Amino acid sequence: MVILSSVIASVISEIGLGSDPAFTVPEYDFRSPTELPLYLLLGVFCGLVSITLSSCTSLAMETVEGLQRATGLPKAASPALGGLIVGLLALMYPEVLYWGFENVDILLESRPFTSGLSANILVQLIGVKILATSLCRAFGLVGGYYAPSLFIGAATGMAYGKFMRFTFTGPEPLLHVPFLDVASPQAYGLVGMAATLAGVCKVPLTSVLLLFELTQDYRIVLPLLGAVGLSSWIASPQRFSKSKSKLDSLEEKSSVAQQANNMPIQNKQFSSMDTIDSSQELCKIESSLCVYDANDENMFGNLTVAEAMKTNYFSVSMTTPLIEALDLMVTEKQPFVMITDSNTSVIGLLALKNIQDFCKAAETTKAQAEAKEFLVSHVYQAGNCKLFSVTPQMPLTTAEKIMDSHGVDHLPVVSEHANLQDRGLLIGFVDRECISIARRAMSVKEFFSSTCEIGREERSST
């Protein structure tokens, strides 16, 4: 399906746009295998540049968030301020703006009647482009990393190539190495584009194939693999940062989950990977695209369980066969059911995972009973259906802390009780999805309220 969709998209785009590449590819030449160490060193530099871009972006986001908290600057005004700063930078360095890859052609000196830029100017462009890209991301301007990575990589490779030519093969070389023949700076510019793209976007294979298709020269593969591999190896683990990358954190959580699966049932207290709120993770990765702060405790502190709970629940009794409980979960597309008695007092919460753990324990003890003979009471008596309930007037943050402390994703909502372990009349349930929806709705509501307030103030002033 991937190949078919890619071929169809390529055919349609070539019909409409033609087969010309996005930017003009200069002639590539690979002079000698003795150049390979130079390409490996370029990969190291591109990896460091990739880390600089990521670190600068994170620092810019933290700085802008601190500025917004200190000055009360609304996020709706942030793009305008960011555009002003980037515009001032562009007055001195117009090449940092996006021209549809024409500025990449200028860097690679592939356009006719174009004078090349000196290595000093190219190094300045690298720094200014990193700063401009970081500010754009921090102030909420629309943009990505793909085009800036190509620009920064081209500037890095061209500056590196010109410096190497001046050092080894210039009119008056600083180091005279008879067996070393340095290629043109354009060759290093192309490899630098792929290496930086791989380091920033974490796509080494895509970078290699992209450049190989552009040059259509198999000689570029060897230096390309070396430079891209080193750049990816340096940039991907964030070796020069104390903070863990997202991939590292996910791997750590996965290993914790695997260790917990091997522990006894009584000792299992871990959070499942599925409990990670996808919207909050997206805000952590792309916080410049979020119009609200997902971690604003002041905003969410007044939310109660009643504002987030769901009342459409499904219940079973202690004498219900497990097969019927599973059929109810499948029919209603819900991973749990409530266990209640005759007067709808909650007894426990039966989750699909509880049944799975019970079946594994029964298989381990070589229980001879057939599956259809197991009742809900068997799972409850095995200690898998612990009850942790909340009340409607309880703060939503407290309910979330109870979930985190006991490693559960759903909590019954009861009418009243003296403490967390007492039973009560079941009126609904709350889960992590409910909490996420309630917070997002409150955030959007606050955002629109502040926007309307700003609009009223502006109309009254005029």
From TrEMBL:
Topology of this chain in the membrane: Multi-pass membrane protein
All residue ranges annotated as the CBS domain in the record: 309-365, 382-446
Keywords, in A-Z order: CBS domain, Chloride, Chloride channel, Ion channel, Ion transport, Membrane, Transmembrane, Transmembrane helix, Transport
Matching Pfam families: CBS, Voltage_CLC
Residues passing through the membrane, by range: 38-60, 81-101, 113-132, 139-160, 187-211, 218-236
Cellular component, GO, one term: chloride channel complex
CDD domains given in the database record: Voltage_gated_ClC
InterPro entries per the UniProt record, alphabetical: CBS_dom (IPR000644), CBS_dom_sf (IPR046342), Cl-channel_core (IPR014743), ClC (IPR001807), ClC-type_chloride_channel (IPR050368)
Cellular compartment(s): Membrane
Chief location of this protein within or outside the cell: membrane
Highest taxon of source: Eukaryota
Single annotated GO MF: chloride channel activity
Entries under SMART domains matching the protein: CBS
PANTHER family reported in the protein's UniProt record: CHLORIDE CHANNEL PROTEIN CLC-E
Family according to the record: Belongs to the chloride channel (TC 2.A.49) family.
Protein name: CBS domain-containing protein
